[in-house]
Amino acid sequence: MTLPPLAASSRTLPATTYDAILLAGFGGPEGQDDVIPYLRNVTRGRGIPDERLEEVAHHYRHFGGISPINDQNRDLKAALEAEIAKRGLGLPVYWGNRFWAPYFADALKELHADGHRKVLVLVTTSFSSYSGCRAYREDLATALAETGLEGELELDKVRQYFDHPGFVNPNIDAVRGGLASLKEQGLLEGAHVMFATHSIPTAAADVSGPREALPSGEPVATGGENEWYAGGGWYVEQQRAVAALIMDKVADEFPDVPWSLVFQSRSGSPEIPWLEPDINDAIEKLDDAVKGLVISPIGFVSDHMEVAWDLDNEAVETCEERGIVPVRVPTVGVDPQYVAGLIDLVEERHVATPGDTPREREALTDLGPWQDVCPTDCCLGRAAKATIANA
Which residue ranges are tagged as binding site for Fe(2+)? Predict the structure, then answer.
């Protein structure tokens, strides 16, 4: 499929000198007493009663009320600090979340109190959507207003990095490792790869990314009986592109392995269309010849609750019911390539001295490098918003 041209790569900001980094996360509960207050934060404004929230809470209850995501971000913060020290950049790293402590407002107050004024923001999402990009920008703007720090702190966000080598290469390694595992078990001939990402409402997918050019919307089938969402929106197109790239890179060792892009973790009213197929439905519809399944959580950067529950429990159970051997490969987490890639993104934007040459922008698909500046119509979402609890 030929895609129309994008102006994303031309919407860049000149490199400048920053004095701190903010690691922006989603947040998650850290004990049983936190679960319902956390879910109230995530669903605020949607009028969902606690009784309904408790239906979701059992995922967290199963793990002692603790989401892995906060510890994962603590580990990522430490890894980023080590990489920054290795490169001699001298940038301190702060951490704030949208929906649980440490909140954005607390992180901004700490940054300001420590004397920082120009901050570069690293967000723990790689693909373009309202919930994955614009909502972070809006919530940071709200936190600036609520803390009275507008005009006192300048916040700039790095670009979406779905096709940056630091994100893509660890995922290539993971899929290659998953297929190697199936080969060792004698299951390569009946192998399939599923790339799992968070479902969002189709209305939100249609308005993801900039509006000046859209994916063609033509149905695409690759490597077998794959059926993808064929509407507009760069959220899905970015993931298609990265999944196809990964499979191309592993084809030297594992040629002709069929694969598909599937979705998980939908929430909200059943009357509202969301991206499909759900991973469990897709597993149930696999051909009987499929004996081994590599599950790659391509849409996530850490093994947080929705990976641990929706994939390691529900999807694995569905595989077992079908007699399929599942291999769920890891997310990028704190893989050294990913950590180094995030600091490469910092060095695209940060120079020690104004006028210095920044790092060259890298992208492994024809879609990137993605934009620094989002147009006003990019990833529209308040009207079609569905808050995604990726924690």
Answer: 198, 306
